[in-house]
């Protein structure tokens, strides 16, 4: 993991090169106020004041230079100076004329993170950003590390990240923060967590399904439950995916990665909560013991589910995990899941489809998302579509015919396992960035993580 703490440091007047970040609307005035050598360098670099223009500006000596970026991002954007974080030479830098650095430090840090498990890259050339906004450093470093944790977990191939490895991640997190971990594995799931067992039973013994539970904090504090979908690889089961659909299914544990990363943030900040993290971890494999279309599954809650599609397995394992979470009467429940292609069709990769059954929670969560520039988009828990979940032989089906409103019907399925009075948010996230942007490479990505953390800090900080 990148040592982000070394890359964002308090500004005590130590030597550093200057960063000029100029809005396009103010570029002409900035340009006119610069010495002739800076104007000449900007012109030579074909800087015209368009967003994205940048140049190195000479000073009095060979080592005395500054950098210019023309940027139309708002000061509150985490990505305002992200394009500089991995583009400048090694060294220390400070922003010119900046008030509090705010979120911009996050992009600076993440631009310098690399996933190196499977390939050797050039040694890191650290670019250190100095800031007078000392109070924001620790939280920014933690957010960068949590985001990198999600990215690294999602980017790891399924051959190296199965249910056992997710359990090891939870164990390491617990050891770091004095939490406890309880795990129910393999055939022990059959009676208490029958849907988790059914989905994972086709995998090899080494990749046996399990429910991982982490518990931390003072029992007297409000109880917060975080649930993360941990399908470490999804073949689709007997309703097998085509090769194109299976290509990225290492990322189907992205919900678990989000939940673990958020738990780490909560524990590092020592928020006043009793934290309960639940990760149903499985591989949806194909073998003679695979569950079948048409099987009627028992659930921890006592409902019966007609399995109409083995590729709609995520909601099954989440159903049992949610049922377990609500048994301890949490004050707040949040789940993260790479759940439906329908959400991606509707909203694309950047906007997690967000379902909230408590209006106060919805307002707080969406407000936090806007504040920290980690966008969410609320979709309705539309009760009129409940009839789509009806079964002729069981209490409900897991995947309605027709394909209408797929993200909504999946959320409605989950709602059957959550009491109507419990504040609950469900984030149907993609956990993957298909196109690179500054500080946001193609690959695993954290969506909604910072929004959820901002909500929890505001409530329990």
UniProtKB/TrEMBL annotation:
CDD domains cross-referenced by the UniProt entry: Peptidase_M17
Residue ranges of every copy of the Cytosol aminopeptidase domain listed in the record: 309-316
Residue spans crossing the bilayer: none
Pfam families: Peptidase_M17, Peptidase_M17_N_1
InterPro entries found in the cross-reference section: Leucine_aapep/pepB, Macro_dom-like, Peptidase_M17_C, Peptidase_M17_N_1
Superkingdom field: Bacteria
Annotated GO MF terms: aminopeptidase activity
Keywords in alphabetical order: Aminopeptidase, Hydrolase, Manganese, Protease
Family note: Belongs to the peptidase M17 family.
Protein name in the entry: Leucyl aminopeptidase family protein
